[in-house]
Amino acid sequence: MRNARIALACAGALLAGSVAAAQPVMSTKPGDDAAPAMQLAQQTRVRAAAPARTALAAQADAAVTLGPLTLDAGKGTMLRLPEDATSVFVADPSIADVHVPSPKTVFVLGKKNGTTTLYVLGPGNKTLLQRTVVVARDMLSVRNMLAARFPNLNLQTSSGQGSLLVSGQVPTSSDADAIVQALTPFLADKEVLINRLTVDRPLQVQLRVRITEVDRNVTQQLGINWQALGNSGNWLGGLFAGRAIQNLSQPIVGSNGGVVYPINLPSNNAFSVLAGFKAGNTDIRALIDALNQEGLLTVLAEPNLVAMSGQTASFLAGGEFPIPVSQTNGAISVEFKQFGVKLDFTPTVLNERRISLKVRPEVSQIDSTASVTTGGVTVPGLSVRRADTTVELASGQSFAIGGLLQSNTTDIVSQIPGIGSIPVLGKLFSSSNYQNNKTELVIMVTPYLVEPTDPAKLRSPLDSLISPSSDVEYSFQRKAGAQPSATEPRLVGAAGYVY
Fold first, then answer.
1. Kind of pairing between the strands at 204-232 and 192-199
2. CA atoms of 183 and 197, how far apart (whole Å)
3. 323: Cβ–Cβ under 8 A, 6 or more apart, which residues?
4. 42: Cβ contacts below 8 Å, ≥ 6 apart
5. Which of 407, 389, 409, 408 has the alpha carbon at shortest distance from 399?
6. Sign of dihedral through CA atoms 455, 459, 461, 463?
7. Is 74's pLDDT higher than 60?
8. pTM higher than the cut 0.70
9. Four-residue CA torsion sign, 241, 244, 246, 251
10. Smallest Cα–Cα separation from 301: which of 218, 353, 221, 363?
């Protein structure tokens, strides 16, 4: 019994000791009763807040390491933040924009195609969020629009940096033009549309151009050239008018030792009449130049070109002349300048009956009056006539894109003052030179929609060429014993020159 009480007392003592060890040490000083409780509460809050801060830090670290944010242009998304944001910005505001409706939310809006970076800073400039924002074109809207407007066409579209590509096959060029116009509003500023559309049946345009230039010159000249010289004793007198009658720079020595001088002929092919009188020390000579000249020059070119719809074709009938070009190191290089009849045209077939045509014909020739001399080298100039226009017309229709009528008139009268104004007699002491130049240039263009044909249906100029093998055949321009063929070219109607 006594042993049981001792064991129970020991157990109670042990129990009391364990409870005392679990209790904090209490202060017995007045006013210190609340201190142990406050310390215990603070320790409890610290222990409870530590797991919460650890979770927030992990969440922030996870937000910083997130991957790229992909958006469509014109669309946006909402991002949640672990802490309150103090600063939000993007590297390129023209690509994406941000709105902060609350301290812990950020709305990102895609504006145009491109890539930028989003930054979100918290207290103490701590990075809460750093993400790459990739803004792509809203290709779903583009494809839906094409499917709604062109349901029977299989079109493919893809977006790239600063460009939009469309590809596929279309039945006509008008459908291709309509697709391009439908996609143009989806392009941003400085973006380009790459057109890879192909037409099932390529359309070809043949352009027939007739370039006609008529140059008419009328020259009328009546020149009186006087040379009168006489002396009497110590006196000497003379009369000289017009050009020199004799060429004093080329003396001709005769067989008897005498020296004579040849007559100066006019440089413009005028007819000259010479009359003279010589008596003693008096020598009077008169040379009359008379010219009535009328010239007609015609230039006709009919270039025919064939080009695909949307492609450019060029034609040149003429030549090239060299132009020296000085380089920076003192060297001289040579460039060539084209002249002659030149034609560039670009057709675009809108439909089976309409053609949009950009045409640029040019007629040029070397003009020595416009030459330039530099460094001892003379570079000739060019007289150019050019037209550049864009028209729309049907296949087989014609139009004149350039018509120029130029008239230059010159009337020069040279006379001796006083004497030249005397009626009748004054004509002997005056000269007149009248020139009238008229030039007319007409360019007519006719486009045709064409397709390749059978080679047997084509004919070359050699097919109608007759090559005589004898003098008889050459005289009659046909083979001996052969009848004239109906396909041989012959002249029908009035022939000659009309101006």
1. unpaired
2. 13
3. 334, 335, 336, 337, 379
4. none
5. 389
6. positive
7. yes
8. no
9. positive
10. 363
